[in-house]
Amino acid sequence: MTKSFSLKKYKDYLYIAPAVLFVTIFFISSIIYALRLSFFEWDGFSEMTFVGFDNYLKLFRDKNFLTSLTNTIIWVGSSLVLSLALPLLFAILITKSSWATGFKNIFYFPSALSGTVGGLLMTSILSIYGLPKIVGMLGHPELVRDWLAIPYVNTFVMIVSGIWQGLGLNMLLFISGLRSIDSSPIEAAQIEGAGTFQLYTKVVFPLMKNTIVVVLLMSLVNSFKVFDNIWIMTKGGPYRTSETLALTMYEESFIRNEFGRGAAVAIVLTVIVVFVSYFNIRNSFKED
Amino acid sequence: MGKTSKKTKIIINCILSILAVIWITPVFFAVLNMFKGQVEYNKGSFWALPAGNAFADNLVYIRDNAKIFQGMLSSLLYAACGAVFAVILGTLAAYAIAHLKIKHRMFWFMVIYSGTIFPFQIYLIPIFRGYAKLGLYDTRQGMILFYTAICIPFVMFVLRNFFKGISRELSESAKLDGASDFQILIKIFAPMAKAPISVVLLSQFTFCWNDLMFGLTFTKSREIKPVMASLSLMNTGHAPAMLMACLVASLPTIFFFIFLNKNFEAGFAYTGK
Fold first, then answer.
1. Is residue B181 part of a domain?
2. Which ranges constitute the DSSP H helices of chain B?
3. Domain count, chain B
4. Residue B229 falls within a domain, yes or no?
5. CATH code of the domain containing B226
6. Which residue of B has its CA nearest to A13?
């Protein structure tokens, strides 16, 4: 009796064992390895030398890293505005239009493509004879140049062109949020004579608070991790001016063979993302 | 939602129509230009109608020079295997965490879920080194194993939420009838979870298909490279072929977009990672 009981207990763990094993081997051990590597200097071939916190200290004195950190903050900051305000505006307009399903599909469609494809399409359109030429014909000949090749400006060009692909998912979440709210408080406010603006800021948005918080935290976490678009559109250049932390990590490790430095950048990025994710996770497990 | 006056509705329809045209333009741009020759395009004819028809030449170019179709076959293998294996292992784990007698279920949940919390970039160096040592670098097995691993946490997360919603009485009464835990999962839980399982299957397939970073880092040879990595390495001097390759490489995900759209309205919410 006791024997079969303990066997049964052991059997239940077999269900989670493969998943736990995969995650431990691939991800948890990776974090530990990267953390250890960040304290060493290593080119990938010769002996590893222990350097303590040197990699980290050097990073914060490195111009490229500071540019990359600034760019990351710009990406995150603008995505906060763009991933909330614009999709919300689109969602409101769509729910009030006469062709909601069609519009929804059109604006969501680019999100079904990969970041690589989106980046390549945008690169072609933003090169000299594409959009710049049209702007030139509209009376701004000084703007006819490759926008992605202008240092520091290109980060903003990428952020704005990223709206094309980035808007869809959040818009969809907001549409379903708008549709699921109870209509009686809105009708009551309308009877009392609230204007459209007031109606939204005082009644609708507070009712959608949960959706807004979920979208905000999700976008925040994701904006730290942008890689594909930047890699395709500028490769972090020219002269490493449009790198973000994700790109810098890749550049240091796989282009420059500075694996210790790359790992240090990855750890800095991880610390920031885990800090932000903490709020995200706490929010999604409120009910547990 | 409140009533909208007719005039406001017309204005809103107009604004959205203009935006919709802008939204379609990049795809239209790609379709227009994939019929052009390399020289014609590079002379600056971006927005004009194609002068000749270089469609067939471009198709041959993306097949032979850029190896896009080979990349698509590789990606199909990696994404299909990765998504299916992950769904199987993720479902088992989700079922156990939601319904079986496991101690510290929240701890085990967090162990598996932790795979999605960290920025994926941190996995690049360690797995690249590990793969190089174990001979998995630049192999099909290596790619399948990796995509399986990276999809597991998300599958487990979605299905655990679903399984938690199924009442315990159901599994307990089945147990009284003599069904084993595994039979309950296969005969009762899995059929009930058909919709979420299909959604995660498609969303994880799409995630693997669309991945660039890992495909680029863990492979070297053209035969092994997944499609997005091959696409990113294409010669940008031949834009018409590149734009054609973009459209061709997107066909499966566009197909799923239409399919998901028809079948699961709510499915979209799951596709974000």
1. yes
2. 6-33, 38-42, 55-64, 68-99, 105-117, 124-134, 140-164, 168-176, 181-184, 190-192, 194-210, 213-218, 227-232, 239-263
3. 2
4. yes
5. 1.10.3720.10
6. B102
Q: What is the DSSP letter of B177?
A: T
Q: Name chain A contacts of B12, Cβ cutoff 8 Å.
A: 93, 96-97
Tens digits of residue pLDDT in B65-77: 888 999 999 999 9
- Complex-level ipTM beyond the 0.90 threshold: no
CATH fold, domain A63-284, is MetI-like fold (1.10.3720)
Q: Using alpha carbons only, what angle is made at residue A155 by residues A149 and A161, rounded to the nearest 5 degrees?
A: 95
Nearest by CB to residue B117, choosing from A107, A187, A274, is: A274
B49 and B67 housed in the same domain: no
Please answer yes or no on whether A117 and B249 come within 8 Å at the CB atom.
Answer: yes
**B176-231 pLDDT, tens digit each:** 888 888 888 888 888 888 888 988 898 899 999 999 999 999 999 989 999 999 99
The verdict on residue B15 lying in a domain is yes
Same domain, B220 and B172: yes
Residue B47: domain span:
6-57
Cβ under 8 Å to A: B residues 77-136? 89-90, 92-93, 95-97, 100-102, 106, 108, 111-112, 114-115, 117-130
